[in-house]
Amino acid sequence: ISAAYHDCESCPHETHCDGGFCVHTQGYSEGSKWTSKTVTDKVSNLGVESKSLIESTIYCITEQTGMFEDQPEDGLLGLARGADLLQSFGSSESSGPPSYRLCMTPVGGYIDFEPSDSDSDSGSGSDSDSDKLDAPHTQLIKNTNDYYSVKIDHIALGGVSLKCSKVYYNRGKGTILDTGTTDIYLPRDCRASFEKIWRDLTERAFHNDEAYYDYAEFEMLPSLVFYVAGGTEFTVHPSSYMEGTDTLGHFTCRIYLDEQYGIIVGAFGLQYHAIDFEGGGVRIKESECW
Fold it and tell me: How many of the other CB atoms lie within 10 Å of CB of 196?
């Protein structure tokens, strides 16, 4: 067995020593939380030949509360730019984080470290520019946490631009494309504008409580469009941000309006998009994720 707990004298970034273990706790705005102990283990991608084992930091969850208690999932994807685990999936010639394509759906999707042009309109190809998504390249913002952060120019709800300063979109962590989070979090500075537009378009007050929607009411729900610096835009449709409950016709909105600065676009916002992570940039395009 190669796994070993981190020594408190060498706790990784964003962890702290507690009871002789390096501990990390992550809380979410809707109330859920998990706590983990960090271990080091040797990992490798069995599908890549001649790739040596590398040491990777792994968070082993010991406690969890809120929605984590009820959901069937048994882990978080949580990809980061500097993750040594990602490095084990790249080609042996690569010295930095590998390029890959991510495409998620509510029931699956894929991560492809040798993406083809199946989600592109550019024709066939194997290892050339023809394999890139037919979408603008957007530069990632450098940050100390290895987030996949981009700069947002503006956001529209149902075709109406939110009236809040883009300073709040891009300050601090910026706008994160976050596979380790489920929901979408917008700055609290946008709350008044968002709620007004929502009411004008749907004739309903905005909230995050479970509510009934008939077919006509659901069809009135607006899409959320992020306009990214560099010409990229991606749309989050109601079918992505409205989560169905166990009761037929009842949904919960998973857009939250309480971030101090920056935006988090979690898995609900990223699903049904093919996303090429290309070292220092990304390309995003709607896709069925087959």
Answer: 15
Strands 255-259 and 224-228: unpaired
CB of 182 closer than 8 Å to CB of 254: yes
Four-point Cα dihedral 130, 99, 152, 253, nearest 10? 100
Read off the pLDDT band of 169 (50, 70, 90).
very high
Of the candidates 143, 151, 90, the one whose C-alpha atom is nearest the C-alpha of residue 115 is 90
Look at strands 273-278 and 175-177 and give their pairing: unpaired
Task: Please state the rounded mean pLDDT for residues 95-109.
Answer: 78
Q: Provide the percentage of residues in the chain whose pLDDT is more than 90.
A: 46
Q: How confident is the model at residue 3 (pLDDT cuts 50, 70, 90)?
A: confident
CB-neighbour burial class of residue 241 (10 A; exposed 0-12, middle 13-18, buried 19+): buried
Q: Is 107 exposed, middle or buried (0-12, 13-18, 19+ CB in 10 A)?
A: exposed
